[in-house]
Amino acid sequence: MSRLRLLSAAALLALASNAHASSFIVTTDAVVGALKATSDATSDVTSSFRDDKIVRAARDDAASFVATEGAIRGVKLESAFDHIRQQLPQLSATDAQLAQAILTI
Question: Where does the record place a coiled coil (predicted)?
Answer without folding.
Answer: none
